[in-house]
From TrEMBL, chain A:
InterPro entries: Ribosomal_uL3 (IPR000597), Ribosomal_uL3_bac/org-type (IPR019927), Ribosomal_uL3_CS (IPR019926), Transl_B-barrel_sf (IPR009000)
Subcellular location: Mitochondrion
An MF annotation (GO) of this entry: structural constituent of ribosome
Protein name: Large ribosomal subunit protein uL3m
Similarity comment text for this entry: Belongs to the universal ribosomal protein uL3 family.
Record flagged with keyword Calcium: no
Major site of localization recorded for this protein: mitochondrion
Gene Ontology CC terms: mitochondrial large ribosomal subunit
NCBIfam families, per database record: L3_bact
Pfam families documented for this protein: Ribosomal_L3
UniProtKB/TrEMBL annotation, chain B:
Pfam families reported for this sequence: Ribosomal_L19
Signal peptide: none
One Gene Ontology cellular component: ribonucleoprotein complex
Protein known as: Ribosomal protein L19
GO biological process: translation
Length: 317, 218
């Protein structure tokens, strides 16, 4: 927070004094090898005073076009449970905790060549982060985060640095794509890794009940083809589960309830984005993200997906 | 100046509350009289402004760390509360949770959600204590079966505790055939559970009853 204040203050002082002869150099800059170029990045106040290609990005609601892409969100997988919806059907639930997501860096086509937002989630102590990481947070003026992840967006969905993204970014009832690092299974054999069927347990099968069997032909070709399925390390890779239904969101506690499974163990970071295949109505989604208006009351009750008025079980008549 | 910061850092490392830090900050300007201390008093003002070249590098570092950790001086009390809220708002308890490992916090969150869900169901419906050996009569509404209410009577041969997904196994005689079914205890489809009798059993799971088909309702 002090870093943010320092950057903003410096910028304002600079602007006021119109670059007087004595430039206030923050002590961190005395020790860095970067040139003392005070080019303005995007402030929350929308202070786009930078030179030439300075882009003014404001935190304002916009209109979502058919090809717009919003950011995603970083959550922590808390666990699984089950809930009953209002018609009495049981819904398996994965709980994600969207912990304090803040936009840490904005990547623009002018400077970095792509249009993306870097989000940070969680908190971390300064002593647990490396100096380059700390320097990155301090340069951007955001608090220290535990996990950073970049989400490519379209130009109309860019947000200024420091914007909080809460759980209300998503609407219950929409579909999302969920990405995570799967649980590691270690060195797994053919049966577990590739679903091979092994060999009979008895009837004379000798020492090869779970083996992979033959790996090829004989002298021709005389080698094992590439991509032959063999035992190896399984799990611990990034996978995406698509079209997961958002059942409920809890804005007071920043919890997201999804239907079904999500890759990864408890406590791992999960990245949630709008679904690519089942796109909802653009007018329903808050674009570029949800901003709490002044006149609106703070919604503290959990929002449940709309299940319709018709009892799906009685409709079977 | 250095000693002031060191004392603050020490106080913080000993788990001092924000109040103690306040006292520390309040008394030290009175103690030292140097001009440097003026700068330090400025430092500890509500709006922490970096003093530029006057503050040594590590001093600024330490104070930034302090303010970021939410244990800081008076004016930053609001900041501290704000930063507490995202973490502690997830848990709904005012004291902030020690966030050491994400998986421990994740399990803690699930625990709390489970407890709350159970409390909510218990307050709405009256659910008796169903243990192994109880003879139960219950009214069940099956949504798939066009919402007909059926009455089931049988003996509970086991109970599995898992928060909101606590289930019990019911063994009953249906048309002369013994049938075991598993029901979630807190399901909204179970309209009523009545305990008719409690048999004295000496174990938690009565699977031995599968071999003993003597008498009805056993």
């Amino acid at each position: 927070m002090a870093a943010a204040a320092s950057r903003g203050l410096l910028a304002r002082l600079r602007g006021l004094s119109l670059s007087g002869p004595r430039v206030l150099v923050p002590p961190s800059r005395l020790f860095s090898a970067e040139p003392l170029v005070f080019d303005q990045d995007d402030d929350d106040a929308g202070w786009g005073e930078g030179g030439g290609g300075g882009r003014i990005i404001e935190a304002r609601p916009g209109v979502m076009g058919p090809s717009s892409v919003r950011t995603g969100v970083i959550g922590v997988k808390c666990g699984m449970s089950a809930m009953w919806d209002k018609w009495g059907a049981k819904v398996p639930i994965t709980v994600l905790w969207v912990d304090d997501n803040i936009v840490c860096q904005v990547k623009t086509p002018e400077k970095e060549g792509i249009c993306a937002l870097q989000l940070g989630a969680g908190q971390k102590k300064e002593k647990h982060l490396t100096k380059p990481e700390v320097g990155h947070f301090r340069a951007q003026g955001v608090p220290l985060k535990r996990k950073l992840r970049e989400f490519p967006v379209t130009e109309d969905a860019l947000l200024p640095v420091g914007t909080t993204i809460s759980v209300r970014h998503f609407v219950p009832g929409q579909y999302v794509d969920v990405t995570g690092i799967t649980k590691g299974k270690g060195f797994a054999g053919g049966m577990k890794r590739h679903g091979m069927s092994g060999m009979p347990a008895s009837h004379g099968a000798s020492l090869s009940h779970r083996s992979i069997g033959s790996t090829g032909q004989r002298d021709a070709p005389g080698r094992v083809f590439k991509n032959r399925k063999m035992p190896g390390r399984m799990g611990g890779v990034q996978r995406t589960v698509k079209n997961v239904w958002v059942y409920q969101i809890d804005p007071a506690r920043n919890l997201l309830y999804l239907r079904g499974q999500v890759p990864g163990p408890q406590g791992s970071f999960i990245f949630v984005k709008d679904s690519n295949f089942k796109k909802p109505d653009p007018s329903l989604l808050p674009f570029p993200t949800y901003f709490a208006q002044e006149g609106e009351l703070e919604v503290l009750e959990p929002l449940v997906a709309d299940l319709g008025d018709v009892d799906p079980f009685m409709a079977a008549d | 100046m250095q000693s002031l910061l060191r004392s603050i850092c020490r106080a913080r490392s000993q788990g001092a509350s924000a109040k103690r830090l306040l006292d520390c900050a309040a008394t030290t300007p009175a103690v030292a009289q140097s001009a440097v201390n003026q700068a330090s008093a400025n430092l500890l003002r509500p709006l922490i402004r970096p003093i530029g070249s006057q503050v040594p590098y590590h001093g600024c570092f330490c104070l930034k760390a302090l303010s970021l950790r939410g244990l800081s001086t008076a004016g930053n009390a609001e900041l501290a509360v704000e930063e507490d809220d995202p973490t502690s708002a997830a848990v709904e308890h005012p004291p902030r949770i020690k966030f050491k490992r994400p998986d421990k916090t994740a399990r803690h969150v699930m625990n709390i959600l489970n407890k709350e869900a159970v409390e909510k169901v218990r307050s709405e419906r009256d659910i008796p204590d169903v243990q192994a050996g109880c003879i139960i009569q219950m009214r069940l509404q099956v949504p798939e079966n066009k919402r007909r209410e059926s009455t089931l009577k049988g003996i509970v041969i086991g109970r599995r505790n898992a928060g909101i997904n606590t289930t019990f196994r019911l063994r009953r005689l249906v048309a002369g055939v013994g049938v075991e079914s598993v029901f979630p205890l807190y399901s909204p489809n179970i309209k009523e559970i009545k305990i008719l009798d409690r048999k004295k059993v000496r174990r938690a799971k009565l699977y031995y009853l599968r071999d003993r088909m003597n008498a009805l309702k056993k």
